Amino acid sequence: MAGRCSPLLGGRTPGRDAGASPLPPVGERLACLRPSRELLEFYRRKVAEFDGEHEELLQMLEKYRFTTEDQHKMEWEMRQREGEIAELQKALSDMQVYLFQGREQALRLYAENDRLKIRKKIQHLLALVGPDAGEITYFHKEPPHKVTISQKQTQPTGREPLKRTKTVTRRKASRGDEAIESPESYKKDSQTLLLQVEALQAQMEEQTRLAKEQVESLLEDRRIRVEEAQLQHQRDQDRISALTDKLHRTQSLLYDSTRDFLQLKFEGRAQEKCWMAEKDRLLRELDACRDRLRQGRGGHVQPARQEAELSGLSRQALEEQLKQAHRLADMYREQCVGLETELAQIREEGDVGREIFKERSDKMAKRLQLMTQRYEALEKRRSMEVEGFKTDIKHLRQRLKEVEKQLFKVTLNVGPNQDLAILQEVRQSNTRTRKIQGELKTLKAKIYGLENELRLC
């Protein structure tokens, strides 16, 4: 550093640089500057400012980290609250549906109650007045269950049938004579009225059924829409949670990277501070050397030269040691590279050996499985053949017994000439049985041979 900065030790002057190029680089110009106390003080102030800035940045980074963590917690709580709100809205909609069904049931009960009241009033009036000779009143044992009447129309529906029944009874009472005189017209009117009532009841039932089907279809549509909305909400929630986790991870990574950057920056400035301290020390040593040089210029020129020669020799020795250290480092590096290549080859050979062993073990396992399958098939075949041989022997024995019985019967009914024929047939049957027994023995020997081969395999 001192040799580069001082012009006495071989540094380049600005005049030479200006002659070589019109504008030398910044590094060369800084190298030609002579360090001074003011420059050191300036660098000390800059390092102190950098330390203060580093502390401020660390504090701001910690503050931002706490802010992001609080924001993440608040977003998580907000998502939980949104989920609870969605569940409450779903429960509220279900309660509204149940309330609608309850209101419908209440309206149905109100309508049935009104009908019962009307029937009771009609029965009471008929009991008080008494039926006419040509009048017949019919009542249902149970009111129809498919008719729905709204709650607002309960009172008018209770009064209108009374008026209608009163008007009908009055008309019937006023026209009693006409009904007696013309029973056929009365029957026709009653039939038409009954048909009209039945048609109206059918229309009301059809409208009620259509309304119920419409309500059920609307409820089903609502259920499907609610399920789709829930699925979409769940997908959105999963995506939001994934993005939030990703954002949190990126924020944490940004915090770590910023902290590492600030730490590296702080370490660089600390290193720069050490360099400045070393530069200050070297400047002090340079000043001391100059003082000693001025003091020893009078009569101590020879010791300075000797010291310079000694320093040159020591420098050469140090350079030689440095070269030797470089040679050793290169040699060790080559050895490391060679050992790494050998290790890579050994690993490759080990991988190849493992693959070969795995392939062989797989082949052996497949072969063993195939042999076991063959052995099982042969064992099954042997057992089936043994069963077949047993059944054949059993049939042959039964046949032999039948033949013996037939021979015994024939011997009872034949003469002396026929005995020879029977004996010949018996001999032939014996030869046949011996031949069959020989074939059975050969088959058994083959089966035993196959079993021995399988055992050896």
From TrEMBL:
Residues 148-157 have a biased composition (Polar residues). Residues 190-246, 315-413 form a coiled coil. InterPro entries: CCDC77. Residues 1-25, 146-185 are annotated as: Disordered. It comes from the Eukaryota. GO terms for cellular component: centrosome. Residues 164-173 have a biased composition (Basic residues). The keyword Coiled coil applies. PANTHER family: COILED-COIL DOMAIN-CONTAINING PROTEIN 77 (PTHR22091). This is CCD77 protein. It comes from Atractosteus spatula (Alligator gar).
